[in-house]
Amino acid sequence: MQPLSPSDRALGDLLVARRVLSLPQLDEAVGLAETWHVRLGDAILSRNWADPTVYYQAVAYHYELPFVDLIRFAPDPALLAAAEVETYTRKLTIPWRRRDGQIVIATANPGPEVILFARKRWGSSIAFVVTSKFDIVWAVQTAFADALSHRAVYELAERNPELSAQEVFTPAQVIFGYALLTLLLIGLALAPIATLVALNVVMSLFYLGNFVFKGILVSVGGARSADRDETIAIAARLLSDDELPVFTVLLPMFREPQMLPVLARSLRQLDYPLGKLDIKLVLEADDHETIEVASKLGLEGVFEIIRVPPSHPQTKPKACNFALQFARGEFLVVYDAEDRPEPDQLRKVVAAFRQSSPNTACLQCRLSYFNASENWLTRMFTLDYALWFDQMLPGLERLNIPIPLGGTSNHFKIDVLRELHAWDPFNVTEDADLGVRLTQKGYRVGVVDSTTFEEASCHAGNWIRQRSRWMKGYMQTFLVHTRRPLHLLRTTGPLGFLGFVFFIGGTVLSGLLNPVFWLLYLVWLIAATSGFDPVFPQSLLFLSLFNLLAGNGAFIFLHMLAPIRRGWLNLIPYSLTALGYWVMISIAAYKGLWQLLRNPFYWEKTHHGVSKHLVHELVPVHETSP
Questions:
Q1: What is the DSSP string of 364-416?
Q2: Please, how many CA atoms are within 13 Å of residue 144, restricted to the half-sphere of its CB?
Q3: What pTM value is reported for the model?
Q4: Most buried pick, 60, 333, 554, 560, via CB within 10 A?
């Protein structure tokens, strides 16, 4: 426990004297500040006891400095530098005006540390004024909207163009694809039977390799040590509040005002000092309804609104890149609007990072659904996620194969995230791509035994919109990282290369090929009377039947095993209906392929707040008031 500084104690007395706080509130704030090892102001702003403007005006009075509203009196643009944005937002200190030969510095954290920093940065001829941290964030967003937006969109494409999906197909890929198609057409024209047999052999071998590979992943992932998970859980419980670092939480949202109260409640339930959370509501600047609701909710001072300027592509990764430039934490996590992380998740992540190798840059938490029992589709979606996050991803981790991160609950070392230029705004599965890039750069991605519960799409149309976007993004990721196959092989190793091909490429190709194989099966049924027997030599026929029966049976069996770990035995019978779910995956795969060719950067939004398990928790927009 860290005792308060004399300055903070004097500030607390002033706040009580000015009736900004009551004595019980001050006592609680002092206790929180000492326990969390934060400034008194951070503890106060983590509660809704005072209007932030009133609080910062009291701070200015305490330090005998003027208070300035940066929204009304913006900083002099000539004093600002786009390269120092992260410094302004991290230190909550910004040059404001020139006056009487001095540079006037606006700060939300007056004190000796800021004075030393300002003198080192701007010289000794300086003066100070006090402003709120929200005004500084707003001023920076306003002054550098274009520069920050450009950086959010193009930084990766300009610095590492070979790793950006901005170019969908490279000339070499177009030539390669054209050559393959030409060879296929020539083969069909000159030797149609032999060509069809060869094509059938290739697809059958792919299917065989795909389900063998995934069977190995499940076997290896299921053998993950429970002792390590328990060790991390114990270490997380033993962490004292003052040991915990500042954690940035990005919450990208778009036209979801009704989800804000639910989301805020989920974050308040985290077992983490609220004064050490740096929470960013990342909203599109033209999403006026959500911004208005966020402004009226009376959220704690740890919440900040980041307005993302309009630009193309309008994607979640672009919004996260923009907000990253305002992040102040040591670690960063992205949550979606409907996410419900387990309360101890952030503590487990901190403990896991401290027990992991220094090159560990990201930890993926498991995802599942709180509305699994809603209907057939949500049950199948839950089975899908249980197999993916509880079995396959741990298998990838143990085999050191690139992990395609899920779209949420990825916890990053923020310095590494910035080093890699964060997410690719042109890739609609930005986290899957980032997971591969991390591995290629020599960083490790791990899995943590903590679950974030989401809302499963319970309507077929909504589900297909979401899954087709995922399929399109996997196609983009595969195209990007196979542009330099030798580089991918060298940076990930032979096993990592094969794992990438089967896990990323195989996921997409399976969805595209399933209908073809089903059609071939129908052809085989009528082959005896239609003259197609030569297309199915006996050895190939046995391989195809093995894939059909044993392969599909194995996948069904794996889906049966998936929920056992969590004790969801009631879901096991639904694995027998997997064929219907795979039909929907194939529909989504072909829709994703069409979109890749037609509009690769279009972000097809998934609608949240439609589940009957969630509707009763939503607050109508007109009811949200201060």
A1: EEEEEETTTTSSHHHHHHHHHHHHIIIIIHHHHHHHTPPP---SS-EEEEHHH
A2: 26
A3: 0.92
A4: 333
User: Residue 36 contacts by C-beta under 8 Å, 6 or more apart in sequence?
Assistant: 42, 43, 241, 242, 244, 273, 275, 276
Q: Pairing state of beta strands 247-253 and 126-130?
A: unpaired
DSSP-assigned letter for residue 609: S
If phi > 0 it is left, if psi is from -120 to 50 it is alpha, else beta; for residue 194 that is alpha
For the stretch 498-534, pLDDT in tens is 999 988 998 999 899 888 878 777 776 776 555 556 6
For residue 3, pLDDT over 80 is answered with no
Evaluated on CA atoms 445, 449, 450, 454, the torsion sign reads positive
Question: For 16-25, how does the pLDDT look when each residue is reduced to its tens digit (9 = 90+)?
Answer: 998 899 999 9
Q: Give the DSSP letter of residue 330.
A: S
Identity of residue 353: F
Written as one string, the DSSP assignment of 110-130 is -SHHHHHHHHHHH-SSEEEEE
**% of the chain surpassing 70 pLDDT:** 95
- Helix (H) / strand (E) containing 236: helix 226-238
φ/ψ bin of 128: left (φ > 0), alpha (ψ from -120 to 50), beta (otherwise): beta
Each residue's pLDDT tens digit, 365-400: 999 999 999 999 999 999 999 989 988 999 999 899
Hey, is 360 helix, strand or coil? strand
- Longest CA–CA span in the chain (Å) reads 98
Contact between residue 391 and residue 562 where contact means Cβ atoms under 8 Å apart:
yes
Could you tell me the sign of the dihedral formed by the alpha carbons of 390, 395, 400, 401, in that order? Answer: negative
CA distance 285 to 254: 10
Q: Is the peptide bond before 313 cis (omega within 30 degrees of 0)?
A: yes
Residue 440's SS3 state is: helix
DSSP type of residue 576: G
